[in-house]
Amino acid sequence: MTRWILAAWLAVAAHSVWAAAPGTLPDWVVGSPDARATAGERFEIVVVSLTGEALPNELSVRLRGALDERIIAMRAEGPALGRQRAYSAVMPVVLSGPIELELLERNSSVLVLRVAARPDVVTTLTGRREGEYEPPLSEEEPMYFVVGGRSGYSARFQLSFKYRLFDATSGYGQDKPWLAGFYFAYTQNSIWDLSSESKPFRDTSYRPSLFWKWERTDDKTWVDVMRAGVEHESNGQSGERSRSLNIGFVRPEWHQRLANGDVFQFTPKIYGYMGKKDNPDIQQYRGYVDWRARYDARGEWITTAVARRGTSGKGSLLLDLSKRARDLRFGPVGGYWHVQYFNGYGEDILDYNVRHRPQLRIGFAIVP
What we know:
The protein is mainly β. It folds into two domains: about 30-120, Immunoglobulin-like; about 125-365, Beta Barrel (Outer membrane phospholipase (ompla), Chain C), CATH 2.40.230.10. It has four helices and 22 strands. The strands form two sheets. Strands 9, 10, 11, 12, 13, 14, 15, 16, 17, 18, 19, 20, 21 and 22 form a 14-stranded antiparallel beta sheet that branches. Strands 1-3-6-5-4-7-8-2 form an eight-stranded mixed beta sheet. Strand 15 and strand 16 (about 265) form a beta hairpin. The longest helix is centred in the N-terminal third of the chain and has 18 residues, at about 1-20. It is elongated, with a radius of gyration of 29 Å.
């Protein structure tokens, strides 16, 4: 304790000289043993009353960074020792870098803390790669182009992205951090008939969605990620070929990093139908859950399986296998050789109640 107080007094003296205006001295000075803290974690300061005024059990403190400012309450850590008293609080997660700390409604010195950004706890707990960053616009589902033959040649390709609606570091997302969990996503999947003379698209599925995503930041929560939202799916056709449905869904996710660095993910999507007049019996072929599992062998081999089982016992299985191709690049984006196998009902929404022979296709992917 003596060593801690001595370090604090040294910090106090240095910062008091720096902070005091010419010809003035603060009534209270603020110090720290090493002038460092970590966002999202508890930190301590020492306050010294130069006038002898009693030190309260709680102090209001202003924390000011280059882009943000927060006011927090700091509670005393035990009784005062003479004219000094230790206080502690949790550093707001949105603050990092040089942060000025001063007491509100007090003539105090200003303490400058070096605040480290919050450690990526989710990286350790849920299998994200170290340093992984999700930009506002990012991929949502796999993106690929594959070709195969079955009573003629056809291609299947998919585009998919999501957009975070609120930035956690500015605007509404900064004031209300839970808003940063809202996303808009869009996925388009097409089957292209390559054998017909005019090369028409057999069917295309358009799937916009709006959802909220939560990720755990501790080691006690039973699920790693949770999504909840609504989704529309249709094929944009009319008459007897029109297909559309609306669902509300939740998608819990469990991620497990194995000892060899591989990652296993189990991400079932559970949904209920909110409208399906163009295909009223679709639950007989799709059911109410997309059972999805994924195995990522450190980005070299990636396998994904999606299974559905309808209420009538009919269903489908989609298997995707990707192998990193180091010489296959699309501009700045790396590529993967991609193999896809489908068996069951409803390869596209037009034929949701039709079962064709199993389909194998080969091609490439930019997002496996």
